[in-house]
Amino acid sequence: MNKKELRAKYKALRQELSADEIEDKSLAIANKMLQLDIWEKTYFHLFLTIEEQKEVETEFVLQILAGKDKEIVVAKSNFDTLEMTNYLLTDNTKFQKNEYNIYEPVDGIEVPNAKIEVVFVPLLAYDKLGNRVGYGKGFYDNFLSKCPEDVIKVGLSFFEPEETIDDVSPTDIRLDYCVTPTTSYSFQ
Q1: Residues within the annotated binding site?
Q2: Alpha-carbon gap, residue 144 to 168, rounded angstroms
Q3: For residue 64, is it within any domain?
Q4: 118-121 and 43-45: which strand pairing?
Q5: Could you read off the pLDDT of 100-149 as tens digits, one per residue?
Q6: Is residue 133 part of a domain?
Q7: How many folded domains does the chain comprise?
Q8: What is the CA radius of gyration of the chain?
Q9: Gap between the Cα atoms of 33 and 42, Å rounded
Q10: Can you say which residues are annotated as belonging to the binding site for substrate?
Q11: How many CB atoms lie within 10 A of CB 34?
Q12: Which of 38, 51, 92, 180 is 20 to 30 A from 10 (CA-CA)?
């Protein structure tokens, strides 16, 4: 399937999930994540859930990161340049929803891309090679291309991988891992 077909398929599959299923599956993903070999790192970039899109609830991941005393980085998106500015999450970080229902920091301590060691990547679908399908704007591929070469990219998904994505682009950046409620896939 191509990206357009996969976006439609997985948006529809997500819409079938109840709030309880999303919460249960998200908690299972967070627990499964604990098995990954990433916890010696310090700077973790975390996407904030878009509830309207029925995304993986990242609050559980946030709690794990805080409990492990990690530096948590969150992004603010610029839809004109398709770039993200990253901010350190602190007790003083104030958030507001943008026009796409994404919670974003209003301001704060900016974190350069070079500091980021692990990125939790939102996705709609992915394949057995670690290629992913997002919403199609290219924010994460753009951002990841500016991170250190050894940054660890972890996708979070309610679903199992597709065999392949037909129209992968040379600018698409592959995942290192994808975590589902039942399995952690490694693409390294």
Answers
A1: 3-7, 50, 55, 132-140
A2: 16
A3: yes
A4: parallel
A5: 888 899 989 999 999 999 999 999 999 999 999 998 888 999 999 999 99
A6: no
A7: 1
A8: 15
A9: 16
A10: 50, 55
A11: 12
A12: 38
